[in-house]
Amino acid sequence: MKLLNKQFGEIEFEEEAVIKFEEGILGFEELREFLLFSETDGYFFWLISVNEPEIIFPLFSLKLLQDEYSDEEKLEPYGIVKLDKEPENISVNMKAPVFIDHNEKVGFQKIIDNEELKVDYPLFVNN
User: Comparing C-alpha atoms, which of 37, 47, 48 is closest to residue 3?
Assistant: First the structure.
């Protein structure tokens, strides 16, 4: 299978690579099938809608920020990244992570009721 978008061009993938989100992503509930990929040795991941390939969510593994983030071993937590031209303005949403089970190819987004988790956690510090 193939999809095409302006940012990454043509992407070939197998049906088995599609991650299903039963309830979609907050604000995009109608989109339920996504691909997840990253550059080799990259820190950012890209969650691309199969049905609307121009809709792409940049993700960052939350385990890189907090080892104990998820107590469920088979789920990988990712925060949706807010990108900016200025690195000090790039932030990640730790309050509403995207959880992905890479073996079962399913995912979901969940708002976590914890005041310590920020919606705009800065990824880079300006010294």
Answer: 48
Tens-digit pLDDT profile for residues 45-101 = 999 999 999 999 999 999 888 766 655 668 899 999 999 999 899 999 999 999 999
> By C-alpha distance, which of 58, 41, 53 is closest to 12?
53
pTM of structure: 0.90
Residue ranges and CATH numbers for the domains of the chain are 2-122 (2.30.290.10)
**What does each C-alpha distance from 49 to 33, 44, 125 come to in angstroms?**
6, 16, 31
What's the pLDDT tens digit per position in 89-98? 999 999 999 9
Distance CA 34, CA 109 (A): 13
| CA proximity to 98, closest of 49, 59, 67, 46 | 59
